[in-house]
Amino acid sequence: MRILLIANCTASSVTARKRVVITRLLSGAHEVDVALTQHRGHATELAAAASTSGIEVVVALGGDGTLNEVANGLAGTDCALAVLPGGSTNVLARTLGLADDPIQATLQLLDALDLGLIRRVSLGRVSSLTPLDDSVPLANEAAPGNRAPSRRRGPASPPSEAPRWFTFHVGIGWDAATVAEVERRGSLKRYLNHLLFIYAGLKAFFRDTDRTSPWMRVEVDGEVVEGWQCLVLNSNPYTFVGSRAFDVDPRATLDARPTLVVATRFGALDFLSLTTAALRGGGVAEHRTVRMFRGFENARIEALRPLPWQVDGDYLGEVAGLTIDARPANLSLVTPGPPRPRRPGPGQRSRRRRGVPAWLRGGR
């Protein structure tokens, strides 16, 4: 099988040694090429080129942003995506049951390829965006008596950011402001990891979130609701806080249309109650502060003040509006089984050749 390994060397868990070991493991049973990303969007270019040049599987080694770029290059093609965790959170990799260690995850990937565990999954899509225009005030900016005029917290998103596919979620509002805060301190992600996200989330909520009036108006399948935060989930959990899953809708899967969630209240107690419910598990569908729309077909988010947004953990700036839909069975995804043991169990022996155990080389 022809494989292209796309690696982001700046991702927090990717080292030269790990990249070399992973390449050798994959090469034991497959024909492998390696490409290193050089700039933002490069992984999309590499994946799109691979899909038309005979590559059968593209392996993405990096964080969630790298994974998103590769998925955007492969969406709608027959070339399959395989995931290896290389970032700080690795949401989709952990959702798929991959080990946190990328070398151990490579062994799972080899097993999956041997067994042909590749299936078509659905993707959500930001199909279009409305860029901010300083000459046209948004609804809350133009409202009479508005005592809390909005202010820009980040760059305006260019129209070229859409269309854009997402593999596990889109966040609009507070969570995007959290991602932006983390990216401003990107050099600390490798060392602080989830502590940095917790700090950024609290700072974004208490310092940057205006709770006097809604941030957005959401129209989904003909129904309109206003709120402060919007999440669109292609799978569950939404993210992880340390080892604990942040459950929003356990019924959101890669085999179905996405789930859209709007927070209709966002005070400090509401925020605490909502996050506690998500960390406890079971989802937040019954929570008093949210409206949930499962399996929606189209949604339009209109900004009442400049809206920060992020896709698969990648902050993309601020917009005046977004349109979101989904496409079923739009990506081939390698879905691995449970992790292998790190070493043979008691009474087991590995056949060795050139000093490498057969089970590490992908053989039997």
Automatic annotation (TrEMBL):
One cellular component term from this protein's GO annotations in UniProt: plasma membrane
InterPro entries: ATP-NAD_kinase_N, Diacylglycerol_kinase_cat_dom, Lipid_Phosphate_FormReg, NAD/diacylglycerol_kinase_sf
A Pfam family this chain is assigned to: DAGK_cat
Keyword field: Kinase, Transferase
Annotated EC: 2.7.1.107
DAGKc domain span: 1-130
Region (Disordered): 137-162, 330-364
Cofactor (UniProt): Mg(2+)
Keyword set includes Transferase: yes
Phylogenetic lineage: Bacteria, Bacillati, Actinomycetota, Acidimicrobiia, Acidimicrobiales
Sequence similarity: Belongs to the diacylglycerol/lipid kinase family.
Gene Ontology molecular function terms on file: ATP-dependent diacylglycerol kinase activity
Protein name, UniProt field: Putative Diacylglycerol kinase
